[in-house]
Design brief:
Strands 3-1-10-11-15 form a five-stranded antiparallel β-sheet, with no helix packed on it. It is built from six helices and 15 strands. Helices cover 19% and strands 30% of the residues. The protein has helices spanning 11-16, 96-101, 192-199, 208-211, 254-273, 284-296, and strands at residues 4-7, 25-29, 37-40, 45-53, 69-79, 81-82, 90-91, 93-95, 114-119, 121-128, 131-138, 146-155, 164-173, 184-186, 225-228. It is α+β, with helices and mostly antiparallel strands and 297 residues long.
């Protein structure tokens, strides 16, 4: 599953879509509602890319034609689509198997309500005994934005005239390279062509071509990078740039600890190798005795 992700870059950089300059995204709906964060949790506002629905078109030959495919826009939405009758129940992930089979709540979304979720990378927890160890997964090029397949819903809530937009992230089986960490991972779209195919909602239907996009990331030329990060990321609301930095390279991390130990050992070895300086005005016998006392103290 995917329960946390990071998108802490500035809005102007997000709009530029690093790594995907060919994507022509026009407006950003609700730009001011998004606050860059290192720890985006469910119920948080985050940007997605979707296709504008231009509405149904009437014609003389067809009573009601399907909605045409409009331009791409960025849209800030709340993470988590409401489901069921239980108050507060929401789905943050949509299993790819359910989309392919067309079962459950996702059947009504898969044809026309597809989107792409933007992030720098996502977090996953490794279970090791009783411990839960958070890891951060990103592209090997840290400047490249990650684009995850998603679904969204638009509803008009009680006592409101404006629609509320929410989204969920599509997940699939974990790749061979990440199966040790968790059995699921987000569907990461690898190319502009895949992104455009996923966002092409002109037919308003599901297809085998779309189903073929729902596979794990297995690009051997550009494997995903995964490393352990601080446990503090597990606390909702906590924020720190160290959350996306390898734990081993932090000043208080394992690598830093070993570096301090090496420095201390090297300093100690150097002192042992250095000969003691002669003391002016003393005989060799006295100096020898002083060295002997120093070694035995």
């Amino acid at each position: 599953m995917c329960g946390r992700f990071a998108l802490a870059t500035q809005r102007a950089e997000i709009r530029a879509l690093p790594g995907y300059p060919q994507l022509n995204v026009q407006d950003w709906v609700g730009q001011d509602d998004f606050i860059p964060r290192y720890n985006i949790a469910p119920n948080t506002q985050a940007p997605v890319i979707r296709r504008v629905d231009t509405g149904a078109v009437k014609s003389e030959e067809v009573a009601l034609e399907p909605a045409s495919s409009g331009p791409l826009v960025m849209h800030t939405m709340r993470w988590g689509i409401k489901y069921g009758k239980e108050r507060g129940a929401q789905a943050i992930n949509a299993r790819s198997e359910n989309l392919v089979e067309g079962v459950g709540m996702w059947n009504k979304f898969r044809g026309r309500n597809r989107c792409v979720v933007l992030c720098q990378g996502y977090y996953e927890w490794q279970t090791k005994g009783k411990a839960k160890l958070p890891h951060f997964i990103r592209h090997s090029n840290p400047d490249k934005i990650m684009l995850m397949a998603g679904l969204y819903e638009s509803t008009i809530e009680k006592d409101s005239s404006e629609p509320t937009y929410t989204f969920a992230i599509v997940t699939t089986d974990a790749s061979k390279g990440l199966s040790w960490l968790h059995d699921r991972q987000p569907v990461i779209l690898s190319s502009v062509e895949d992104v455009m195919r996923w966002l092409d909602t002109s037919s308003q239907t599901w297809s085998a071509e779309l189903a073929n996009l729902l596979h794990p990331w297995e690009d051997v030329k550009a494997p995903l990078e995964c490393y352990q990060v601080p446990k503090e990321v597990g606390k909702v609301g906590a924020e720190s740039p160290t959350f996306i930095q390898p734990l081993s390279t932090r000043k208080d991390g394992i690598q830093a600890m070993f570096a301090k130990q090496r420095t201390k050992q090297e300093a100690t070895a150097k002192r042992k190798r250095e000969p003691s300086s002669p003391v002016p005005g003393k005989s060799d016998e006295i100096q020898t005795e002083e060295k002997k006392v120093k070694r035995e103290s």
